[in-house]
Amino acid sequence: MSWCDTSNLPILTFVDTPGFEPGRDLEWRGMIRHGAQLVHAYAAATVPRLCVVLRKAYGGAYIVMDSRGVGNDLCIAWPTAEIAVMGAAGAVRILHGRELAALDESRRVAEEADRAALYEATFANPYHAAERGYVDAVIEPGETRGVLAGALEVLVTKRHRQPSRRHSNTPL
After folding, report:
1. Between helices 105-122 and 88-101, what is the axis angle to 10°?
2. pLDDT in tens, 18-42
3. Between β-strands 74-77 and 137-138, what pairing exists: parallel, antiparallel or unpaired?
4. Positive or negative, the Cα torsion across 95, 99, 102, 106?
5. Cystine design at 57: which of 22, 62, 69, 95 (Cβ 3.0–4.6 Å)?
6. What pTM value is reported for the model?
7. Using H for helix, E for strand and C for coil, what is the string for 11-70?
8. At residue 20, what are phi and psi to the nearest 5 degrees?
9. Where do the structural domains in the chain lie, given as residue ranges?
10. CATH classification of 2-85+125-155 is 3.90.226.10, yes or no?
């Protein structure tokens, strides 16, 4: 990203990330540090930044993939995209865990599947994210090239005004 920024090349990010896997092994290998470096590079970039959510976009992993909250210039999603804090199954276990634990095994599995389907339909879709401003538009996959080309035409004159002394401290 830094190379694109110094070479004045726009950054186009295609997102399909089910999230960071929790665990000591990933923490030991520096997943949080690498994520911090990635989000820092996106945030520091002054060139046009476009993001297309193709499929899954969950939690912190989506945030560091140039999400709308990081300040990209355009964020679009396909209608089949899932944008949420976490997947439906995990969310249902957290939100309704005690209630589901009280049910017998066969009823619990069916109830968990029903609630996961309801969660996906209600929250894990790009339309819900677009209503809240996390996505600029939901487009059909066949329109992607045209929308991106149009955005780049508009952003070709983008000028980012920086303070006279701009220094950053890259996460190490």
Report:
1. 140
2. 765 555 665 555 667 777 888 888 8
3. parallel
4. negative
5. 62
6. 0.80
7. EEEEEEECCCCCCHHHHHCCHHHHHHHHHHHHHHCCCCEEEEEEEEEEHHHHHCCCCHHH
8. -80, 140
9. 2-85+125-155, 88-123
10. yes
